[in-house]
């Protein structure tokens, strides 16, 4: 198919989308109409000066198509979902919580209730995914408005039950000391799903989702750590247990 035919085909597709503009997100409607106008001018300019406009027209064509579809959402109840799992991380203080009044003083940064710990985990995952999508969008020369629209269509669901610190020990210990135990594996796994109703992302295949998730997961959980295996950090000289009876030896 010739280049002119491709442009005319794209023009017809945009005219079809124009008749269904109700499905566009409100902030992007003006941007959408602007790109429709750009496409009209593009086709006219192409017919007049095909040789000179070839490279420039192709770039505008690509940006116009990305802008239109990037601001579009699909019908309610439809969408694309991808599952994820984060493993092999160290446990940031904010992912642990304690309701004991003295614990936050001895362990700065620890969450003071379960909801705050869950919120921290959810934000870590969502921010990591958003950062990757933002980088990819800017790499594709999409505008900030379009990228924001894509991100607004993304719903992150996280499954994680935080560790509760009911006891904090402050005396110096080593990894071989009694009273220090392994962090249960259940607290070193975060699972969840990403769902989008954005027209572009809803058509992604598993490979495209995996590319984003792999990059996001690798940066999802960072910060001050309690250590990977033990409730113990030599610099702080303190240890934490979920329950004395279950996780502390000799108790």
TrEMBL record:
The chain crosses the membrane at residues 29-46, 58-77. Keywords: Membrane, Signal, Transmembrane, Transmembrane helix. Residues 1-21 form the signal peptide. This is Uncharacterized protein. It comes from Parelaphostrongylus tenuis.
């Amino acid at each position: 198919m010739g280049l002119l035919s491709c442009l005319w085909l794209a023009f017809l597709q945009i005219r079809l989308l124009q008749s269904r503009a109700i499905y566009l997100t409100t902030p992007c409607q003006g941007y959408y109409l602007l790109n429709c106008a750009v496409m009209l001018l593009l086709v006219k300019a192409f017919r007049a000066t095909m040789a000179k406009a070839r490279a420039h027209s192709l770039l505008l064509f690509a940006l116009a198509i990305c802008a239109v579809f990037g601001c579009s959402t699909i019908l309610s109840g439809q969408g694309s979902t991808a599952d994820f799992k984060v493993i092999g991380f160290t446990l940031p203080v904010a992912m642990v919580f304690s309701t004991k009044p003295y614990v936050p003083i001895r362990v700065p940064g620890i969450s003071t209730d379960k909801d705050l710990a869950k919120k921290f985990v959810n934000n870590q995952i969502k921010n990591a995914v958003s950062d990757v999508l933002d980088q990819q969008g800017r790499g594709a020369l999409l505008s900030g408005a379009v990228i924001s629209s894509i991100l607004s269509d993304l719903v992150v669901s996280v499954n994680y039950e935080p560790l509760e610190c009911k006891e904090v020990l402050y005396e110096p210990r080593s990894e071989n000391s009694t009273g220090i135990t392994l962090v249960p594996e259940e607290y070193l796994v975060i699972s969840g799903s990403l769902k989008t109703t954005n027209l572009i992302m809803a058509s992604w295949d598993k490979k495209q989702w995996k590319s984003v998730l792999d990059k996001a997961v690798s940066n999802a959980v960072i910060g001050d750590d309690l250590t990977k295996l033990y409730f113990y950090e030599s610099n702080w000289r303190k240890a934490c247990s979920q329950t004395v009876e279950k996780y502390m030896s000799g108790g």
